[in-house]
Design a protein that fits this description.
The structure is a homodimer.
Chain A lengths: L6 E4 L15 H13 L4 E5 L5 H10 L8 E7 L11 H8 L4 E7 L2 H8 L3 H17 L3 E7 L1 H7 L1 H13 L4 E6 L6 H11 L8 E5 L6 H10 L4 E4 L13 H11 L7 H4 L2 H12 L16 E2 L3 H8 L17 E2 L7 H10 L9 H15 L8 H11 L8 E12 L5 E10 L2 E8 L3 H14 L9 E9 L10 E8 L4 E8 L2 H27 L1
Parallel strand pairs in A: 1-2, 1-8, 2-3, 3-4, 4-5, 5-6, 6-7, 7-8, 9-10
Antiparallel strand pairs in A: 11-12, 12-13, 14-15, 15-16
Helix pairs in contact in A: 1-2, 1-12, 5-7, 6-7, 8-9, 16-18, 17-18
């Protein structure tokens, strides 16, 4: 363990994916896990390997990755009723994940045990005891999630206490009190935790809250106030029903407002980035009003607030927005933006602090494009290409002479789509055509076909994801769209972006950036080897 | 006043409109105010008549309306420094609004008074005293908002106390403690309120919270626990920065969970409707995860939760969703699919309980299409068209002979897009073409052009929103897309859907459904008139 005041346990990749529209591929999960590890999260719950093949694959892939800070955690249930722990496939799947820590949940609410699980209260305790003891015997750190702890406690406090004491006596390292239905009021929660800490030391306790009453963050804070050491949550509060506790808001409150140590100091400035990064991967529009990290979180609309903030920001800002990587915005004025770009440039190894004319040009260009709807936070590939272009470091791999995309439908028959493209590479022209199951797919196919002749390494490259978002709601079919493409060549993944009122044009921009990024990356690697 | 435990003070129309994307016309404000009145809200803060002409016009219009339950309230500031209250235009505007109640805010934080307002602490007290006294002399109920009360109290508790005691001694009916910057932690807030109630009776106190730390609801609940009688909030938590306290969540917690009386019992079942109604008027997509009233608030994604909920809903639902007008939804499982469809059909006036062959066919067809990625929950227009089609009640308004969409790009020039279409209506053919700023827009333009000749009422119709979502992340540009179109004819809004790997085909389906819905609706209305 370590010396933080509060242990941060992220379950975006497990409980977060229970959210209605949340879906991550195994590759996306791994990217998020690595990002959380870099930022110093203490625990990353990666998934439930016994419940679905995608999560099992995630843990397979994660074996090849070394985590510097975080303890990767696999989640599962206790052994089945009337089965040996060693013979239970759930438990076996947890061990196969080969993570340093495992989390298992057990039933705490007697209603659930008798009505849903249909076992005796004694067998439920035995299931918990055996599962924890067996996993401990295999050398695992064991986090025990007491499901429905508060509902259970309200109904039968003696039994709820027996459940967590059983887990503890079997060797569990941490007992997590779960408000699974999200229905507990903070004053009730505090009263119950105060009883619990009379028989379990608070540094062995964690809190897992759901947001059904809009109180997940408050309940987590109340638990920490009562002494609880571990907090569970998800990035952006993703999760089923009304979501889990938003771990970013919790970290903001604990570390920035209350001076408790959660993450390394420099990770706090990345919280805004982290929120946007995960929402882009999830393809869920970021919530502008999200505490600390939302686009509107430090935005002033006008009138007296703007005047006051210009005199002294603390007049209407509860913290300095820069502390969490956010920035003040004043609508109608165009004061902000530069530090944001500098931040991103630094990540790409470009120091915009030096006021050279090229750096100025980069900042201007990015601001102009972000005004138009580009969003470079989530398009590292396009940003890198753009910077290289302005610095004159990019060799254009091909010139587009022209393309046509043709889409036709007759009666009720399925549509037919064809694309033809003419490009030139070093003076040599190539004209080719391809079909596709949609206009963008046809264009993608035609471009690859034309380029493979000149750049065979394009064959390694494939698209991992293709996301479209409408930028302005009220323009109907004339609205601007943002296309985000994730590409991979098996070693790296990069993201590129295009914006246009024409989805084909927007996709074209993102496709071309992606190919340029791949070729430029391979070129640099070749030079390194020479 | 009345016998409720807690007085509900809605400020959607005033503080809510400080939200970045929130904009209501005076007419829209009046519709919302009437709705809130019908539901039994105690106070409706309608706007700031001294600050903008729109709000002044709202109060003019409101004079023609009689409110049954609510006290309409006009908001403003105290008199200006070194001016008579009777001579201050702010105060005059409040009186001109002719509302039974007025709310005025005064500075409580000494930092604000010296740095922003630039007056002496004594003059600030005089401004508060004179303004309250003058408004009382005019027969108004006066709500006094102690701006930045908690920040002020932390900095200079003696002065903060003087401020609210001054307002009270001048005759204020209610003292509202404002956490204007939204930065106060619940334990600090409770400690401060406990001090305040040692010298001001809690039934004269109100709470106004902002959500900058994700704690606005929790802080409001904590204030009520401490005895405070009036709560301020906005529908859906709209408001500047991270928003105000969500008044719907507060009412849910207080009345449904804690048995405190806020609104008449039957208004509680309207909370889901109210949330959607206001988000539609604001044209802000409703937040699916919103506590109590969100579309996902009682949605179960699969696996053990679904099984458990089917056995006993309280297993994973903290309240009966029907209490607040919401309903349980179960995703993925076939079992659930059916009840879900029955529910939707009932809403359309079709009773699927009767096991006729047509009803079976409708259920089968919808299930099959939902498996393919259609999503009828959000496409009432398409669902209605589909049901009418299967029941043989739909007159097809046109036959598509063929269309072609052509998109070309040369070098760096902007792309060119054209669509041509051939349709027939009652044996008469029409061939036409149009341009657009993207392929779907061109097709949309061509279709309308062709149809307007036969159906002039299509001219009333326009697209309000066009949304695209990729359904499968890992297929790259070959992925399936779901297109959702919202259309309006000025009277109604309806949503239609299309799904295909080809975005043009998916858009085509949604466009055709939308037009069919409009024509079939107008046809029915015509029959009604005859």
């Amino acid at each position: 363990m370590n010396s933080s005041d509060v242990l941060i346990y992220d379950t975006t990749l497990r409980d977060g994916t229970q959210g209605e529209q949340i879906n991550f591929s195994a590759e996306e999960k791994l990217r998020i896990a690595q990002r959380l590890d870099e930022m110093g999260f203490h625990y990353i719950e990666g998934g439930w390997p016994g419940s679905n093949p995608k999560d099992a694959r995630f843990f397979e892939m994660a074996k090849e990755v070394s985590f510097e800070h975080a303890r990767l955690t696999a989640f599962g249930s206790t052994r089945k009723p009337n089965t040996e722990a060693a013979a239970c496939p759930n438990i076996a799947a947890l061990l196969q994940a080969e993570t340093p820590a495992v989390a298992i949940f057990g039933k705490t609410w007697d209603l659930h045990i008798s009505e849903i699980l249909n076992v005796s209260l004694e067998e439920n305790l035995a299931m918990i005891h055996d599962s924890v003891e067996y996993l401990k015997s295999k050398g695992k750190e064991v986090v025990f999630d007491a499901e429905h702890f508060f509902d259970g406690y309200k109904n039968n406090p003696g039994y709820a206490r027996q459940v967590i004491e059983t887990a503890l006596s079997a060797g569990a390292d941490m007992i997590v009190l779960c408000d699974t239905n999200g229905g507990t009021m903070p004053h009730t929660l505090t009263a119950i935790i105060n009883e619990v800490i009379s028989y379990i030391p608070p540094y062995l306790l964690g809190m897992h809250a759901h947001n059904d009453c809009g109180l997940a963050v408050a309940n987590t804070m109340a638990a920490v106030q009562a002494g609880v050491r571990m907090v569970h949550g998800t990035i952006n509060g993703y999760g089923e029903r009304c979501g889990n506790a938003d771990i970013i808001t919790i970290i903001g409150n604990l570390q920035v407002k209350m001076n408790k140590r959660c993450l390394p100091e420099n990770s706090i400035r990345e919280l805004t980035h982290l929120s946007n990064y995960v929402s882009d991967i999830a393809n869920i529009p970021p919530l502008n009003s999200r505490p600390f990290v939302g686009r509107s979180a430090f935005t002033h609309k006008g009138g007296i607030h703007v005047d006051a903030v210009l005199k002294n920001p603390i007049a209407y800002e509860h913290i300095k927005p820069e502390l969490v990587g956010n920035h003040e915005r004043v609508l109608v004025s165009d004061l902000s933006g530069k530090s944001n770009i500098a931040y991103k440039a630094r990540e790409m190894g470009i120091d915009l602090g030096k006021e050279t004319s090229i750096n100025k040009k980069i900042v201007q260009q990015i601001k102009m494009m972000e005004d138009q709807g580009y969003h470079f936070d989530s398009a590292d590939g396009s940003l890198s290409i753009l910077m290289k272009k302005i610095k004159g470091e990019l060799k254009e791999p091909f010139i587009l002479e022209s393309f046509q995309v043709f889409n036709a439908k007759t009666g009720d028959n399925p549509p037919v789509t064809q694309a033809s493209i003419k490009i030139s590479v070093g003076g040599e022209e190539e004209l080719t055509a391809a079909e596709g199951n949609g206009p963008v797919n046809a264009l993608d196919n035609a471009l690859r076909k034309a380029l493979t002749k000149f750049y065979p390494n394009i064959r390694d490259m494939h698209l991992v994801d293709f996301k479209v978002r409408i930028l302005e709601g009220c323009e109907g079919t004339a609205a601007k769209v943002r296309v985000l493409i994730d590409s991979s060549d098996g070693r790296d993944i990069w993201s590129t972006i295009g914006v246009s009122t024409n989805i084909i044009e927007a996709s074209w921009q993102a496709l071309v950036d992606s190919i340029q990024y791949k070729l430029s990356k391979d070129e640099e690697n070749k030079e390194c080897k020479v």
